[in-house]
UniProtKB/TrEMBL annotation:
Record keyword Cell cycle present: no
Gene coding for it: frsA
Protein name, per record: Esterase FrsA
Domain of life: Bacteria
Transmembrane segments: none
Enzyme Commission no: 3.1.-.-
Entry-linked Pfam families: FrsA-like
Keyword RNA-binding found: no
Lineage, top ranks: Bacteria, Bacillati, Bacillota, Bacilli, Bacillales
MF terms in GO: hydrolase activity
Broadest EC class assigned to this enzyme: hydrolase
UniProt keyword annotations, A-Z: Hydrolase
InterPro entries listed in its UniProt record: FrsA-like, FrsA_esterase
Amino acid sequence: MHLIFNDQTFSFELLRTLSYAPYGGADIGECLSTAYRIKEGCFDSWYTEWRKTAERMHRLAVESRDQGNRVSAREFYLRASNYYRTAEFFLHGDPQDPRILDTWGSSRSTFREALRLMEGRVEQVEIPYEGASLPGYLYLADQTPRPVLIVHGGFDSTGEELYFEVAAAALQRGYHCLTFEGPGQGAVIREQRIPFRHDWEHVVTPVIDYLLSRPEVDTERIALMGISLGGCLAPRAAAFEHRLAACIANDGLFSNQFGEMGRKLHRGNDADLDDPAYMDRFIRGLMAHHTGVRWAIENGMFTYQAASVAELIDKTEPVTLEGVAHLIECPVLVCDAEADHFFAGQPERLYEALACPKTFMRFTTEEGAEEHCHFGALQYFNHRVFEWLDRTLGVEAASTAR
């Protein structure tokens, strides 16, 4: 699926931004007009044009708020948040770039302004974590004990983005929803400087501990969804955290080892890749010609706090469910996208390794849901996933309607 750009990475990230329109995170014309102004493959042009659009939405939000137009202000703030997030996306090649904190910070602050104008109950939460904290948002359908869906992102997600992707749909179906950022994500990497870790159970356990303290939570029906890289991290957590009633991998990911990726891209003697200096030259050569590789390496070094390609490879070596997946006890939904350019073949590997009750859910080109994490078809994705979750948790769909 190509949208405006021939460059696959730019096209996909435009689709991702546009996909949040059904849940208030984008407007179609705003996204397309922004994309037409961008120089293909140029990270600075991407930043400049999305920043312009975000600032315009931000100004309109403030004007609407000052005029007492609550609905319009909320809508403008939500779109500004998503566009600021999009603008910041390709900036991680220089971790000291001041635009990172400034632009991401604007994405967070505009989202929180929107929260103040929402009708339902939403709480900003800080979950204690190893002497630090994990920021999150607790979305409550009402004040009664209900099933809760915990949602975290992956390699590049922010907590604010998760509202558009899943939380809004959860609320519509009567679920409480807790979204949070872990190590390597959002504020945790940008402000607290805590990088990714592979043993994600140490991240999810304090989140569940927090939920058990809340009277609104049905403690027997807590589910976990991990998105993108989270499709490996969430199953990893479920293998050791048995208080979960269900786990959703969107999309399923068995391993995310950068060394393995390098070997797949290599066309020469694989023995050469055992030389860190050769691997570094090889990967940097790819980065010079492939936008996606450049972004993946730069964002990987940013989120794992790796000083070199070799160090990034070492730090991602433990990111695998080999010898772990069979320990999961709760039901698992493994999602798969027919044309996933990131995870091709990975969902099947995860599904085959599971020994628990399991479901494989494939999304197709015919459905318009074939892209990674089903961007472009989020309403359809949420329809199918929440039907599975209703059945798995024993939730009566009619009783969850708000």
